[in-house]
TrEMBL record:
Keywords: Cell membrane, Membrane, Transmembrane, Transmembrane helix. Residues 28-403 form the Major facilitator superfamily (MFS) profile domain. Residues 1-22 are annotated as: Disordered. The chain crosses the membrane at residues 29-50, 56-82, 94-112, 118-140, 152-178, 184-213, 225-246, 261-279, 286-306, 312-331, 352-374, 380-398. It comes from Streptomyces rubradiris. SUPFAM superfamilies: MFS general substrate transporter. This is MFS transporter. Signal peptide: none annotated. It comes from the Bacteria. The lineage of its organism: Bacteria, Bacillati, Actinomycetota, Actinomycetes, Kitasatosporales. It is found in: Cell membrane.
């Protein structure tokens, strides 16, 4: 899939020494995970500071909420475009550029005098995020090699789940104690630390990539890749329908108490971190298809049970734990599947996967809103369960296509 640049001290690939394997690759992966944490915090914390943002800039709460949609849609559009344009670049250069662009957007948001400027600054931040997450996943995979690809990617995406479990709650508290601009400075600090880490601890790796635009876009003619990407889109749409409207869905269980809601959100993110990491490990051992299928089934079951758990806080907490593990257990194995389909086009494929994930966040908000107005907050998880079943079908379709036409796909990719 990729090869590491020879280490200048040892002269061996991948940062190995004569005494054995160095810890340097894992240090680099952990730095990449921290960067994902910093970037994910901006995305997930915005919903928590909407009241402060709304009051400060004199806009309605629904208008303020569009900042979340703009961020997600920008990432969805820009991730594949930037992934294509930078596919032949060294990954460490892409990482440094993406963090710098993201930092510029965060700082711009903190200084923004009006809501339109906030939106513009968040577009800039989202461009950096859309470039960083795929580059970090590909770099982590290259650093650790095929045998530990799932765990490496899972470590990076665990940074995103940590943003939901830790970054967003902390940023929300900062915003409520001070103001929403203080939350932006908190994120800026995380980003600066991430930038230093990338410069100091992430070694240069070379990821193979097709030379021309036509070659880089060739994977889109691969039916297997399209099926896997479609499964990502549909599965995360199912997962985020409830998360986006968690306050409304579990209002009977929390009694409108923000602290209880924060506990549920913390449980979702924390168990998601665990589920995501071990999903990557299990994918290395049993195969990504098995782990993805099992996670989607568990997701569908947990969403079916949600209406029975909305009246009790204890029951809601139990369901949230299962729901979080299942939802985030899909991420790392899906990326591993894509890389294994066509290692030479990994940057583009992972960029597309990230784009579909962000698009799923935007779609879930729309579908969830329709559900709220038709069947009520208590039952919108049933829509999610039905969508999850569709995702399972798409996942299995990708597997069947891989078994039935590997030779044809290999010719297309070539």
């Amino acid at each position: 899939m990729s090869k590491s640049v020879p280490d200048r001290k040892s002269g061996t690939p991948g940062g190995k020494t004569d005494e054995g394997e160095s810890a340097a690759p894992w240090r680099g992966v952990l730095v990449l995970a921290f960067g994902a944490f910093a970037i994910g915090t901006d995305e997930f914390v915005l919903a928590g500071v909407l009241p402060e943002l709304s009051d400060s800039l004199s806009v309605g709460i629904t208008t303020a909420g569009q900042v979340v949609t703009v961020f997600a849609l920008t990432c969805a559009v820009m991730a594949p475009i930037l992934g294509t344009l930078t596919a032949a670049w060294p990954r460490h250069k892409v990482l440094k550029l993406s963090v710098l662009v993201y930092l510029l957007g965060v700082v711009g948001t903190g200084f923004a005098p009006s809501f339109p400027v906030v939106l513009a600054a968040q577009v800039v931040a989202a461009v950096g995020a859309g470039l960083y997450i795929p580059a970090a996943s590909v770099t982590a995979s290259a650093l650790m090699g095929p045998g530990r690809r799932g765990r490496a990617i899972a470590a990076v995406t665990t940074g995103l789940t940590a943003a939901t479990a830790l970054g967003a709650p902390i940023g929300t508290v900062v915003g409520s104690v001070f103001d929403w601009r203080a939350t932006m400075w908190f994120i800026a600090l995380l980003t600066v630390l991430s930038l230093f880490g990338v410069f100091a601890l992430v070694p240069a790796v070379v990821v193979g990539a097709p030379g021309g635009l036509r070659q880089r876009l060739a994977p889109l003619r691969d039916r297997r890749a399209v099926a896997v990407l479609a499964a990502t889109l549909v599965a995360f749409t199912a997962a985020y329908i409830v998360y986006t409207y968690m306050a409304e869905v579990f209002a009977p269980a929390t009694g409108g108490d923000g602290r209880k809601l924060a506990i549920l959100m913390f449980a979702f993110g924390l168990t998601g971190m665990v589920g995501n990491y071990y999903a990557g490990t299990l994918a290395d051992r049993f195969g990504a298809r098995v782990v993805v299928g099992g996670s989607i089934v568990l997701l569908a079951v947990s969403l079916l049970v949600v209406p029975l758990a909305t009246g009790s806080f204890a029951a809601a907490a139990v369901v949230i734990v299962v729901y979080g593990m299942a939802a985030w257990g899909i991420t790392a194995p899906q990326q591993s599947r894509l890389i294994s389909l066509n290692p030479e086009s990994a940057p583009l494929l992972i960029s597309l996967n990230a784009a579909f994930l962000y698009l799923a966040i935007a779609l879930s908000g729309v579908i969830g809103a329709v559900g709220l107005n038709t069947i009520g907050a208590r039952n919108i998880s049933l829509i999610g369960a039905a969508v999850a079943v569709l995702a399972l079908g798409l996942s299995e379709l990708g597997h069947r296509l891989a078994k039935s036409s590997p030779e044809r796909t290999a010719k297309v990719a070539a």
